[in-house]
Amino acid sequence: MRVTFRELNRQTQTTLNRRYSDLGHLEEMLSTGKRLMKPSDSPVDVANDLKLISKQQQISQFKSNINDGMSFMTVSDTAMLSMNTLMQRMRELAIQGSNDVLSSNERLYIQKEQEQLLRQFVSLGNSTYKGDYIFGGTQTKIPPLPLVTSQSGNALNYSSKEMAFFDGSGGVGVAAQLRQADTLDPITRIIPGSFQLKIGNTAYVEGRDYTVNYVSGTITPINAALAVDVSEGGTFAAGPLGRYTLAGFQVSFDYISQGRDIYGDKVVASGDVFREIEDTIITPINITADELMRDSTNGQHLLDVAIGLGSDLLHNNRAGIESSIGTIDSSFKVLLSAQSKNGARINRFETTLDRNESQYTETSRLQSDLEDAEYADTIGKFSLAQTAYQAALKAAATIIQPSLVNYL
Amino acid sequence: MGLFSTLSIGTRGLFAAQLGMDVAGQNVSNADVAGYSRKRLNMTADYRADGQYGQMGFGVDVINIDRMRDKMIDQQIQRQNQQVGSYQEYDYTLQQIENIFNEPGSTGLASFVDKFFDSWQNLANNPADISARTMVKTSADIMVDVFHNLSGELSNLKAATNEKLRANADSVNELTKEIFNLNIEIGSVEINNQKANDSRDKRDGLLKELSSLVDIDTQENSQGQISVTSNGNLLVSPVGSRDIEITTTTFTMPDGTQASNIGLRFKDSQKNYNPTSGAINGLFGCRDTIIPEYEEKLNTIAKALMTSVNNLHQRGYNLMGYTGLDFFNPNATGASDIALSESISSDVQNISAATGNQAYAAPANVFGAGALNFGVAPTFLSKTNVLPAAGADVARNVIKNSVRMVGTQPLTGLTATLVENVDYRIDYAHGTVQMLHAGYDGWQMNVDFQYRSGGFKGPGDNTNAVAIAQLRQGLTMQPDALGNPTNTYVQYYSAFIGHLGLARQEATSNLETRTFLVNQYEKHQDSISGVSIDEEMADIIKFQHSYQAAARVISTASQMLDYLLNMAS
Asked: Choosing a second label site near A182 at 20 to 30 A (CA), which of B99, B188, B397, B556?
């Protein structure tokens, strides 16, 4: 074949261009460290790479879900541990209080300590994590055990919504339910030792004039003066039940209430709070107040047990105190089982976290295999391409230069 | 026969050698001109009849100056060049699309979709937290922007393709005009049996250029003039060239915006012109097939995201305990107009992370005559048949399309089913009904509906946020024959990006193959028509020597004549 100057020129240009673009591609690989720059570099690898990137992102999100869930459960664990200690002390107090030789006054002292334990227990039940009530189920913005307290030194202890009354018209010796004035809801779980009743300047004394069932919130009049329908300050003179007013009636107490949701319905602390910790694996992380305190076999509630003990101490009821040791033990079991449930979950999260980390490492490795340029290999190729380019340049320079003209 | 004829033979030799020198000189000086074909001097030994000896030499005769070129190769080049032109456009467009999607990388759509779902996971960890909610909204905003941007870039690419088509149509017109002019020039030269070598070189160059734009077939007549046809349409004939012109069609896109495409037709016949190959064909293909394919896929993802997130979100409950809210604007048509719904963009508390109970059917609400009159303040629907006195009885979260309102005219007993949003309006979140005109004043109304009220599990419930976050790995795309989705977003998207990569690879390799073929043919043509300096130098020496020799013949003949004349004196 006849080879001409023009053809040689074309060939030289094509070859140099190709070598130079090879060099450019390798240079890009070296400077970015990536093998895949655009989909057409390797369509299948890019498609897999995209899936891996998303997978990896997901795994690292699961990791933060796990960590967040673990902190949540650790806070629960700490709270439950303190509850456990409180219960132990309460049990000791019950044993102490059941001692035959104690006087009623001595039992009152024990009751004072037990009351503080009870209050502390309630406040632990309202523990929060990042501003959310951890034992509140999905109602994280409403305390599961709202403690409504009297304001000391103020005769009108309750806002109008929280005013209370009871209908003692049943007579002496008949228990009357204490109710909330606005909703007529029964008031239960009164903190023993916090109850005071006055009419005008006359203070009425529990045991002499009335008795209180702190668990169910009923008042049984002993003094006939209380065997009437009493409510506060005349507010309910024309109330829906046709109550009349006992002038100067004042009652003050602290009790464990129940929150209301945005619909105005009473909130039961229930519902699971979930974390997705692995692909499609969604586990609850919360213990609800009910799980913590209600014995599902007999419906017995830890708060009722503790209030019952306090009430027995207050009422100097030795037999009641003695029998409460058994109920405290069974409530203890409920608390312990909630604790171990939480502990098992923490363990599970820890093992999942281990797996999550190894998954992350594995996908990172796979992704790096797919996406990253192998330096040694690329540098090798680069110097090869460089040599090829230089050789092409040299060859072109040598061959294009001379022609017959140079020799004439 | 005499010495004068010897002188004449020498003169012809001189003339031929000089002409040869001229051709060699022309070749050398045009060695670098693109498309130049090397010329060759065709000579033959001239003779005359001699009575005594038969044929007798009469010196050299120059037949013509011919160009060295293989027409068949030119046609091959034209054929492959059409493909090069077409694949060049495909390759360029696909490269642009690759650049637009910018995968794999941290700025591609995939990473923003991931971030969107991450933000839902984060919300699931803190369902009541306003900042987690704001993060969901922000990441959704960014993702929506990315969709808009991608869709905008694709339609810009389309517009650029239209512009290129316009420019190429102009080039075709110029080229055909010039080819026609050269046809005339060649015809007028070659009618005298001469070779229009340089005009032909020029015409071959233009044909090559034209072939990169449109498919062409050429036919040459006896005068050396060619007819060029493209997809069965005459572009150039010996008598003229046909202009093409641009038509513009405007249409409305699904999202309501106006767009226009340009088409080509012949100015004289008004017949549409669609080349089957070449850059113009490539541009049409890119604009009508390639770009819409990726637009369609992007829209599919946007729509799937929109509907699957909305479906779950509607079932969820917001922080205020209302349900049935959309996350994305349900009226959007695709990637170009995907947007957050009014309720989400106005208040992040409307993001529904919680779940609630199933729907309840309420006992029919009966409104006595006049209770629902036009101009009366919105009236509450109630869960029971008692008009709500306290808030708790209000049937909040009425389910869309579940309301049926039948009116009865108390006097005539006439009944009618009322039309929603024409006769009455329901506030679904708050559970109220309001009349829209006075036509039914005084009627008794019977309202049936379903509601979800009261099911809100509380601000700490993250079930719906988890469910939405799970859409990332859920099957949402590409329904099979039974309508069940078979792919996740990332599977669909990565397949789509893989497909893009393959398409580009295919276009590039086609382009490289065709370019290689064109190069091979050109190389071949060069080996025939290219100027070799060495050859020309050798020729120059050859002709120099021929010239000297012919001159020696003349001078010798002249001396012989001298002897003869001196003899006579």
From this structure: B397
* CA–CA distances in Å: residue A385 to residues A22, A28, A33: 7, 13, 18
> Per-residue pLDDT for B391 more than 50?
no
Q: Is the ipTM of this complex over 0.90?
A: no
| B354–A138 CB contact, under 8 Å | yes
DSSP H stretches of helix in B191-268: 197-211
Say if residues A294 and A334 touch (Cβ distance below 8 Å).
yes
CA A205 to CA A389: how far, in whole Å?
107
Place A263 in a pLDDT band, splitting at 50, 70 and 90: low
Query: What string of DSSP letters covers B87-107?
Result: HHHHHHHHHHHHHHH--SSTT
Question: How many Å apart are CA A295 and CA A303, to the nearest integer?
Answer: 11
Question: Count of alpha carbons within 13 Å of B247, Cβ hemisphere only?
Answer: 11
Give the up-direction half-sphere exposure of residue B200: CA atoms within 13 A in the CB hemisphere. 25
pLDDT for position B256: 83
Residue B137: predicted pLDDT = 95
A84 φ/ψ sector (left φ>0, alpha ψ -120 to 50, else beta): alpha
Quick one: tokens of B498?
């893989």
Mutation site for A-interface testing, chosen from B526, B527, B542 by largest number of A Cβ within 10 Å: B526
- Coil/strand/helix, residue B445: strand
Say whether A278 sits in a helix, a strand or coil.
strand
Inter-chain contact B104–A36, Cβ cutoff 8 Å?
Answer: yes
Amino acid residing at A390: Q
Residues of B in contact with A263 (CB under 8 A): 321, 391-392, 396, 453-454, 456
Q: What is the mean pLDDT of residues B465-490?
A: 89
Instruction: Please indicate whether, in this complex, the C-beta atoms of B98 and A39 are within 8 angstroms of each other.
Output: yes
At B508, list the tokens.
Answer: 């590039």
Question: What sign does the dihedral A135-A137-A142-A145 (CA atoms) show?
Answer: negative
B434-449 average pLDDT score: 86
For residue A206, pLDDT beyond 50 = yes
Nearest CB partner across the interface for B98, out of A5, A14, A38: A38
Q: Are B235 and B177 in contact (CB under 8 A)?
A: no
What is the percent of chain B with per-residue pLDDT over 90, rounded to a whole number?
58
CB B551 within 8 A of CB A46: no
Q: Among residues B150, B313, B175, B343, which one has the least CA distance to residue B244?
A: B175
User: How far apart, in whole angstroms, are the C-alpha atoms of residue B93 and residue A157?
Assistant: 79
Decide if A69 contacts A89 (C-beta within 8 A).
no
> What's phi and psi for B417, nearest 5 deg?
-90, 125
* Angstrom distance (rounded) from CA B569 to CA A359: 122
Distance CA B387, CA B402 (A): 20
Q: What is the mean pLDDT of residues A19-28?
A: 90
Distance from CA of B504 to the nearest CA of A (A): 6
Only one residue has tokens 């008598």, namely: B239
Confidence of residue B388 (pLDDT cuts 50, 70, 90): very low
Two structure tokens written together for B203:
């015409």
For chain A, the distance separating the N- and C-terminal CA atoms, rounded to the nearest angstrom, is: 25
Q: Is B482 exposed, middle or buried (0-12, 13-18, 19+ CB in 10 A)?
A: exposed
- Reply yes or no on whether the pLDDT at B17 is more than 60: yes
Res. A177 pLDDT band, cuts 50 70 90: confident
Nearest Cα residue to A367 out of A54, A30, A32, A24: A54
State how far the Cα of B190 lies from the Cα of B196, in Å rounded to an integer: 6
**C-beta atoms of B103 and A39 within 8 A:** yes
Measure CB to CB from residue B392 to each of A7, A36, A264 and give the nearest one.
Answer: A264
